[in-house]
């Protein structure tokens, strides 16, 4: 374990520390750690470029804050947009906290909303069908601690941090031959129960067996921690990286892609929007709508394939078409029902990306329904 860095020697360090301590009452330890890291980087910049600054009333947007932003943007290798934005958000929150406790209201305006870059909208990166199958086969073949942990993540949709926090008795009986995994408080400070099948029950039993063999004393957790939770998470990430390398996978996969794969599989299988929100532990419909966007992409692809090669998903029936019952009217009724459900959901959502996405999906269904009705007249 690496030695802890010595505290930064700067006149403003105690002031920022008190502000972070005040904010920490409503933050989890990981977020607090990010705040302290951002402050350390900012004060290190001040020491190097503006050593004369020793009090809050000396801070100015130009040159101190704008200069720090320029320094962040000029780093090599360059910071990712999300990392750059997160550092500005962290420092802005601290300045706002200081503005409320110090007679310096101008601190709240040192970093402005327009300074934050617009993050690119990315669809969730799921595993491809080939990656998913290959990894599952390898996890099952190895049947070790890391393999069973990732199979559990893949088949429950939990985050890797939530998996690291699972209790030894996380498997709960919810009825006759019905089971669920209790996922503790996670990233969004929300716990949930995820229904599971017999396969997942066996995964939990295997992980319990591995825990019983571990020399570390029992601590009530399903996965033994070598020292801390971050150390366990790093250990699991390294396991996945090494496994992908051994399989010759060209893309470096990350654990969160297993969660995305679970979510997209659920929505493609017909799981309702509210149910998916509950399964994933989301607190906002906008978070879950990203997976609906994936389904929209699927719909467009299937629609284009259907136009180019009708019935590409269904094998040609052996019976003659004359012996099959007419079902086009039933298809139209199903499309109209789907439009009705989408419209009810759309009206219940506030204005935003989610409502816009549902409107686009409804328009696509309208076009398909119109074409189907034309077919009934031919």
Structural account:
The protein is mainly alpha-helical and 378 residues long. It contains 14 helices and three strands. Strands 1-2-3 form a three-stranded antiparallel sheet. Helix 1 packs antiparallel against helix 2 and helix 1 crosses helix 4. About 4% of the residues have low confidence.
Taken from the alpha-carbon principal axes, the silhouette is: globular
pLDDT below 50 for ≥5 consecutive residues: which ranges? 311-326
Query: What proportion strand?
Result: under 5%
* Biggest pleated-sheet summary: 3 strands, antiparallel
Q: Give the % helix.
A: 55-70%
Q: List SSEs in N-to-C order.
A: HHHHHHHEEEHHHHHHH
What is the residue-mean pLDDT, rounded to a whole number?
A: 82
Number of distinct beta strands: 3
Overall structural class, as computed from helix and strand content, comes to: mainly alpha
- State the distance separating the first and last CA atoms: 74 Å
> Widest sheet: strand order?
1-2-3
Radius of gyration: 26 Å
User: Total number of helical segments?
Assistant: 14
Topology:
Blueprint: H1 13-23, H2 29-49, H3 61-73, H4 81-101, H5 129-142, H6 145-156, H7 160-164, E1 171-175, E2 178-183, E3 192-196, H8 198-213, H9 229-247, H10 256-268, H11 273-280, H12 285-308, H13 328-348, H14 353-376
Antiparallel strand pairs: 1-2, 2-3
